[in-house]
Amino acid sequence: MWTKLAHIVLKFRLILIIAVGLVTIFMASQLQHLELSYDFAKVVPANDPDLLYFNNFKETFGEDGNLMVIGVADSAVYEPLNFKRFKFMSDYIENIPGVIGVVSLTNLSRLEKDVEKKTFTQVPIFPTIPSDRRQLDSLLTIALEQHIYSDQLVNTDNGAMLMLVALDEEVLQSERRQTVVDDVMHAMDIYSDGTGIHLHVGGLPFLRSFLTSKVKDELDLFLILSALVTAIILFIFFRSWNAVVFPMIVIGVMVIWTMGTLSLFGYKITLLTGLLGPIIVVIGIPNSIYLLNKYHQEYERHGIKMLALSRVIRKIGIVTLITNFTTAVGFAVLAFTDIVILKEFGIVAGINILATFFVSIILIPAVFSYLPAPSPSQLKHLSLKGLDRILTGLDLLVHRQKYSIVAVSVVVIIISIIGLSRLSSVSYMADDIPKGSRVWQDLQFFQENFHGIMPLELVIDSGKRKGTSSLSFLRKVAEFEDYVEEHRDISSTISITNFIKAARQAYYNNNPAFYDLPNNHDKSFLQPYLRNQGGNWELLASLVDSTGQKMRVSMKVADIGSHRMDSLIQNHLKPKIDELFGDSDVKATFTGTTLLFIKGNQYLVKNLMISLIWAFVIIALIMAALFTNFRMIIISLIPNLIPLIITAGIMGYFNIPLKPSTALIFSIAFGISVDDSIHFLAKYRQELFGNNFFVPIAISKSIRETGPSMMYTSIVLFAGFVIFAGSEFGGTVALGILASATLIIAMFTNLIILPALLLIFDSGKRSGDSHSLIEYYDEEIDRDLIKLDGRIGQEQKRKNA
Known about the structure:
By secondary structure, the chain is α+β, with helices and mostly antiparallel strands. The chain has a domain at 2-40 and 209-421 and 597-800: Multidrug efflux transporter AcrB transmembrane fold (Up-down Bundle). Helices cover 64% and strands 7% of the residues. The protein is built from 27 helices and 9 strands. The protein has helices at 2-11, 13-30, 49-61, 80-94, 133-144, 147-153, 169-172, 176-195, 204-238, 242-264, 276-302, 305-332, 340-370, 385-400, 402-420, 438-450, 471-484, 496-507, 523-533, 562-581, 593-627, 630-653, 660-690, 695-722, 730-761, 783-789, 792-800, and strands at residues 67-72, 99-104, 109-114, 119-124, 161-167, 200-202, 454-461, 550-557, 587-591. The chain has a 4-stranded antiparallel β-sheet.
């Protein structure tokens, strides 16, 4: 089979090159349709009960994550001129297309009672901004007495102030979101430049826009960096521009195919799929390294270029296919999860990693068949003294200290398992925000001054129509809200009770002492005013459903992490609700973007761990098909499990939590690291047949032939993944550092522990007439292929000369 494939590739090389080129042109034409994803809600499965409830909540009450927040903690903002400019900024932002409303201290209104009509009217507190400081202070005092707003907008302890900017929901899910956010930021910059007052910005729309723009920027940056790093390493290894340019062309083709596949399948670029390009660059290069290294080794032996290229395909074609397949499995198992972003990532990565084999096995031999044969200087890397000393040292170490190697490995595994036991899973809304950046500092500002800005919603179902208008029911709700305000991680609540309290305050001539629910004495006086108010309060529609049975209590929480959030709800808030409503038909349910985000991360980690198990099972089955020997299956898997255990142990000792970005490492690294084992074992089994099944010699020859390629590819993989450490996203940094460390550890386990295990546990005895799949390669020489070169004798003479 592989002889025929070699014949086809080299005989029809021009046709195959053109075919690859045409497919690449087609894929490139699809890139114009590729879009960034503006939807961050694809983590929880569509049929999840909590997500279904949240979607129903949004249909009833509206969006909970559409607020941008602007904050300021400079007392200079209360100077008349600066306050006037703040109002101008507020009015300007409110007129930006896509902004549906702004709530700011400068545009607050207070309720005033109309005795004749028995209703309340809204009167602006700041119809104009006075130039006199005393007049402004007087109006500010009136504004702060309106507790319905002031508790939400002003920190009375230090004067810090908020502006709330509500964005249209359709804008949030489109590319227009970035334009709207940029316009708001531009207005903030104008204000800061004119006053010297620093403004802080936050809220989910802003965070999502920030992440989206960074994904786009880093996609371009890491593509360039990964290509540059791999090109430099290739040149250092092979000292030949041909060995740099053409492998990079192969990788360029595969990057285009990968992004084209995203577009063809209708997928968008997310934080995860944005990494596909750089990952393909890093993972695709090892193919070229193995193929070129084998080509140079074969050419050095006999000096016949076409025969060397033919043997490259015949001898390591099947091994390269299998290694690409196992790597693809490490990614493709993600397609079996219930999470859309993982499914998309796994499908596209799996398809294109496998496609990388076919492109490499076509283009590398085909292109190099047209190029001049390798010169002596280009073959020097095969006999580098430094590399030879390293390989000799490894060979001696494995033969002389095999039992010590196993003993040390056992100790390391035990220590790592202890660290693994300390591993915990925790996630934060702002996990990926760069620590120390302006965005992160602004988030800390809102948490310190306003107890956070992450949305948390509570829906209270009274159990009967218009049940939310019952005064006894509302008093229990108010008691719960008072309890909530005792917690430093939750902001003041907003619900229908706030408006009823404000109405009572207005009824008593806006005396702040009367900001409370009506008592039995004054409820009869207030009832006509509330009844006549009707639909004049537009905000009420987002706080009570149309039947009056359900009400919404909105809160803002600090980004305290999934563990503390779960404890806050389960150990504090829910027990209080049970205490207040436990003896009634009232049902209370927590929901909101924050809880869905946390649940989404839990889903991600769980699915990634399941994917790792599937990858292990599938790769074990592949090993079984390759070796048909249970002992060899176990021996081949152990060196690839040890790096995963060590990495998990490191995470436990250094308190690196298990979250989506770190959980992703294990299935990817396992799929990649197995490649080294397959290459080594393939050569080992071939050498057994060539050396009378004498294990020590087979081990030595395998180390010397596959060792350089294993080192080269591991260095490329390390350098390729470690560049992700330069990301501004914490998750991407963790992925880069831990994945690169895992792969380097895997190189050593496959070069040291794997041979040691073979020396101890493999007798080398095989049936001389039977070959497992991994041992198969055809030594038949196709003379027609050799004649394609036309210079067999000349090449041999030139080599001898």
